[in-house]
Amino acid sequence: MDMTGQERIAAPRDVVWTALNDPDILMQCIPRCESLQWVSESELTARVKVKVGLISAGFTIAITLSNVRSPESYTISAEGKGGLAGFGKGSANVVLEEDGRETILHYEAGAEIGGRIAQIGSRLIGSAAGKLAQQFFADFNAAVSQ
Asked: What is the pTM of this model?
């Protein structure tokens, strides 16, 4: 599953960069995120509830940031385990482009899933991922443009 897009955020690039690296802000914006914390300078761990179709599971996710060019871009890699529900892993390249007093966040992401959750079907999973991304960006935009 691949996703590419951009989001216009009503805040300067430095504000957006700081928010993208603030676990408290991200926890508010990531749908069904129960915890998110730094474990090192470039690694975070998260706990997220996922519901796709009839399957609901909690995932423990290890997140690594690489290729960091503050405040312009980085690569986010994540691997999540949801027990019997399955697993997910993926990465995203994120680039922040200044546009006056706003920021355009460009992203290219790819993911793969396995286990019971993968048996649901790619169309349903793609639709769910798209809705989660829309909700995240709406909440994130509201959080940083206050």
From this structure: 0.86
pLDDT tens for residues 38-91? 999 999 999 998 776 677 778 899 999 999 999 999 999 999 888 877 788 889
CATH number of residue 47's parent domain: 3.30.530.20
The closest of 34, 35, 56 to 44, measured between CA atoms, is 35
Could you tell me the residue range of the domain that residue 44 belongs to? 2-144
Cα dihedral sign, 6-11-13-18:
negative
CA atoms within 13 A on the CB side of 96: 25
* Integer Cα distance of 64 and 139 in angstroms: 23
Q: How far, in Å, are 82, 87, 99, 128 from residue 28 at the CA level?
A: 21, 23, 25, 19
Structural domain tally of the chain?
1
Helix pair 122-144, 13-20: axis angle to 10 deg:
120
